[in-house]
Design brief:
Layout (H helix, E strand, L loop, with lengths): L1 E8 L8 E4 L15 E4 L11 E12 L2 E10 L2 E2 L20 E2 L2 E11 L4 E8 L7 E9 L23 E8 L4 E8 L3
Length: 188
Amino acid sequence: MSLDVAWTLVDARFRSAERLNGAANSSNDEGPGLAGAIDIVAGDHLPLVPRQTFKASLAVAVEARTTLALDLVATSGATARGNENGGHAADGVFYLGPGRSPGYAVVNFGATMQTTPALTLFARIANVLDRQYASAAQLGPTGFDAAGRFVSQPFPADAQGRYALRNSTFYAPGAPRLFSLGLRYAFD
């Protein structure tokens, strides 16, 4: 039997001040729904980098040539790309979504059987519980309102003739349940 446990803490921060495109960020300098910029300061967290990751793995030999393994991968949420200043706040009208991806945990299962000294059969189920999760997030314009209805031009033009856009937090989906079967052959 073997047990592996690892916890990682990442404190990834900007080291200098910067001015970035913040068109989809509610704290931009142009106002609601308009393309503006955001200011980041030294010390703001880098987007898309989870602060904490936890991994645990348990492998058990059930007989001389067969091993079963179970592992867990858990990660904290991360700031979305476009929310580098951490100042985004949804208002339900111009800005939808939290500006970050939520944390998640995934359980995986595997089995190996060595049939000969050179041949090993393996099976793996990734994301055993078929958990839906997001691996990243980004702020951007959307044609949909909070109820999921398409609205091509939701707001009238302002005094300068600019049309405000509705923006949302978009998510990169994590991998669904996956079944793998295979074999490994070691050539001498």
